[in-house]
Design goal:
The chain has about 100 residues and is of the alpha+beta class. It is about 35% helix and about 30% strand.
């Protein structure tokens, strides 16, 4: 099984619903539907890209699969947006769009 195969189940819509707030889910789906995601790169057990939101400069966003100490896989996100940087969301709407 490839590393990408390990990542795919975490990107399943049902897994995202469990990992994100309803607000982030809705806003992320809207960004995705509006073709706001560009420059997608899949590497190792993660994916990264740029998401055009309300700011003129796209946000750099990444998602990766991490395994916790008890052996469970979970989704870890990073984003250059204030929502993520300020700790309001562990998985922001830009990460959902990605």
């Amino acid at each position: 099984m490839s590393k990408l195969d390990n990542l795919i189940p975490l990107l399943d819509p049902e897994a995202l619903v469990r990992a994100v707030s309803p607000k982030a889910l809705k806003a992320g789906q809207e960004l995705f539907q509006n073709n706001a995601v560009t420059d997608i790169v899949v590497s190792g057990e993660g994916v990264r890209g740029k998401i055009k939101g309300s700011h003129p400069v796209p946000h750099t966003t990444s998602l990766r699969r991490v395994v916790t100490q008890n052996g469970q896989a979970k989704l870890e996100a990073h984003c250059s947006c204030p929502t993520f940087a300020d700790g309001w969301e562990k998985v922001c709407h830009h990460a959902v769009a990605l």
